[in-house]
Automatic annotation (TrEMBL), chain A:
It comes from the Eukaryota. The lineage of its organism: Eukaryota, Metazoa, Chordata, Craniata, Vertebrata. Coiled coil: none annotated. This is MPN domain-containing protein. PANTHER family: ER MEMBRANE PROTEIN COMPLEX (PTHR12941), ER MEMBRANE PROTEIN COMPLEX SUBUNIT 9 (PTHR12941:SF12). Component of the ER membrane protein complex (EMC). EMC8 and EMC9 are mutually exclusive subunits of the EMC complex. Residues 4-139 form the MPN domain. One of its GO terms (cellular component) is EMC complex. Belongs to the EMC8/EMC9 family. CDD domains: MPN_UPF0172.
UniProtKB/TrEMBL annotation, chain B:
Component of the ER membrane protein complex (EMC). Pfam families: TPR_EMC2 (PF22890). Its main location: endoplasmic reticulum. Part of the endoplasmic reticulum membrane protein complex (EMC) that enables the energy-independent insertion into endoplasmic reticulum membranes of newly synthesized membrane proteins. It is found in: Endoplasmic reticulum membrane. InterPro entries: EMC2-like, TPR-like_helical_dom_sf, TPR_EMC2, TPR_rpt. Keywords: Endoplasmic reticulum, Membrane, Repeat, TPR repeat. Gene3D superfamilies: Tetratricopeptide repeat domain. This is ER membrane protein complex subunit 2. Residues 91-199 form the EMC2 TPR-like domain. SUPFAM superfamilies: TPR-like (SSF48452). PANTHER family: TETRATRICOPEPTIDE REPEAT PROTEIN (PTHR12760). It is a peripheral membrane protein. It comes from Aldrovandia affinis.
Amino acid sequence: MGEVELSCLAYVKMYLHACLFPRCSVNGVLLSSTPAGGAVTDVTDCVPLLHSHLPLAPITQLALTQVDVWCAQTQQRIVGYYQANASVLDISPTPCALKIADKIAEQCSNAVMLMIDGAKMTAGYRVPPIVMYERKDSRWMLKDKHMIMLHQWEETRAIANQLLDSGDHTLLVDFDSHLDDITKDWTNQKLNAKIAELASPANGNV
Amino acid sequence: MASVSELYDVTWEEMRDKLRKWREENYRNSEQIVDVGEELINEHASKLGDDIWIIYEQVMIAALDCSRDDLAWSCLQELKRQFPGSHRVKRLAGMRLEALERYEDATKLYDSILQDDPTNTAARKRRIAILKAQGKSAEAIRELNEYLEQFVGDQEAWHELSELYINEHDYGKAAFCLEELMMTNPHNHLYCEQYAEVKYTQGGMENLELSRRYFAQALKLNNRNMRALFGLCMSASHIAASPKVSAKVKKDNMKYAAWATAQINRAYQLAGRGTKESKCSVKAVEEMLESMQITMS
């Protein structure tokens, strides 16, 4: 299994999603705009999905179908799944996490599953608070940390903190919020633009 | 930093009224409550009269939610001074211990309340909340069931139990809790819709038909419930697509699905008119609905 690159955009939105709903379990899917078949799994974006009733089927099915359609329209692929459990003590993937990740792996052989470690999300945390799994022999195994790349980690972390401090994390729309008010955009174009603004232009790939 | 009253140009009465609204409607917007409440307490305490005690309680709980132990502590002291020996204040002290993750001390405090007054529902619920926080779901479920045997009418408890069962993937029992809630709250569209989601998740033709019926019921109660609309569309489509149903059932369900699809399209057209951002979602929905029509026929 190869390297996984996690972009600033994907990380920041995932992180803000967890921060926006601190008392709930949240989940979402990881996307890539790079064509399949490369040695590196390039996670370029993510779509935050739910913050309630994660194990229930209908809305999850609906969300995945809509994201699928949008991906086809925008030349992206679903390459992974993330989840943050409500309880900070519990970073293990739940049965519904495994189910959804399995489904994603059916379509994408390099799929990854990412659990957010709430206990590491304290002020001034130094390491990315994530635990990544990859698929080996039909099971999800912990991925070697050294195979996970976050380019410009310091800057990414600074952007996430800045958006949190300024209250801009409330701009984030997940699929659940979209269903509460369908004028809200779950592709988060506005927030994406804000993040791109904050990322230094010298970076290139954000 | 500018004060709340300066930033939003509000009077202290408006701030007090806002706090009351949030209290009565049980909002958990703790950062806002802390901002507004702290200023009210610091600047306008004398004008609040007897309201101040309930405001101290509300702000204290919000402060715990925001890790503002300093504020929580001072609110608690005021309340302890005014109401020495009160169980209600003791419970707040317990909640502070919970926030500090001193669960054993908190449990001891709640147990002492219950020794004095075995009917104290607040203390019993906090005990269950502690079990939940510690990840002891099976025990939390057991105690909550015992609680409900005594306090059968407690809606909040039934709903909490349904959530716990859903997280344990025990959909049958979750459905039972939601049935209780629907019986006592027949006009609540959210319970209908959640029940329908659980039935859909359980799967099988019977459950699928039930889910479709309850999604429809939720829509009757609130025709803007998008989850119910999508749910109706999806459940009816699945039934229509099944090879095991009669021609009549297939025809009826295709009708329901078509109706739901039209409603969804209309809702998204209306939504998409204002903002260019939602164009992505509108297009995605259109395509998705089209592909569902294909699988049905």
